[in-house]
Amino acid sequence: MYFVYSFGRWAALVILLLGWRCQPAEPSEPEEVVRLWQSYIDRNRFDSARLYSTELARSYVDFLDALVQDDSAEVTRTELREVHCVVAGDSAICSYQIEDELGEYIADTLTLKRVGGRWLVHRVEGFSTPTRDTVLPGEEELVFPPADTVPAWRH
């Protein structure tokens, strides 16, 4: 009987250790965080992307999340090419090319910040809320006005 009890304890320990080893490792390099964060964004896994975002970058993730809430469009698949990060202390500027589904390349940049030993996306280049003087009267609360509300003479 002791053998069965002892074997059961050892088997449980081995299963626990194997399960622990199968957990994905926390990304340790800025390039890894950029790839992981972008893959979450591409798959609309915004809660996961928020885990790798500072408060400033979370506003961008929140914007995307709100944008796709009422949209049933398929998830966009992109490929990151030529990810290159320059690290200076607790900051990293990562430049890369995104290859979209049509095979077109789009240059992009993310700024990362090391917080508590973890690299997090801090700032998304090109993302900002439009200033009040760029929206039409009555649309002050909209982030981007719908295209059909823009007068034809403004196109």
Written description of the protein model:
The chain is α+β, with helices and mostly antiparallel strands. The chain has a domain at 24-129: Nuclear Transport Factor 2, Chain: A (Roll). It is built from 4 helices and 4 strands, in the order ααααββββ. The protein has helices at residues 2-21, 30-42, 46-51, 55-68, and strands spanning 79-88, 91-99, 105-115, 118-124. It is globular, with a radius of gyration of 22 Å.
Name some characteristics of this structure.
155 residues, four-stranded antiparallel sheet, alpha+beta, disordered C terminus, 4 strands, Nuclear Transport Factor 2, Chain: A, 34% helix, 4 helices, 24% strand
Number of strands: 4
Low-confidence stretches: 10-21, 128-136, 139-155
Percent strand equals 15-25%
Major sheet details:
4 strands, antiparallel
Based on the structure, what is the oligomeric state of the protein chains? single chain
**Helix share, percent:** 25-40%
Count of helical segments?
A: 4
Shape, per Cα inertia axes: globular
Report the mean per-residue pLDDT as an integer.
Answer: 74
Task: Determine the CATH topology of the domain at 24-129.
Answer: Nuclear Transport Factor 2, Chain: A
Structural class: alpha+beta
CATH A-level architecture of the domain at 24-129? Roll
What is the H-and-E element order? HHHHEEEE
Q: Report the CATH C-level class of the domain at 24-129.
A: Alpha Beta
State the strand order across the main sheet. 1-2-3-4
What is the straight-line distance between the termini? Answer: 83 Å
Q: Radius of gyration, rounded?
A: 22 Å
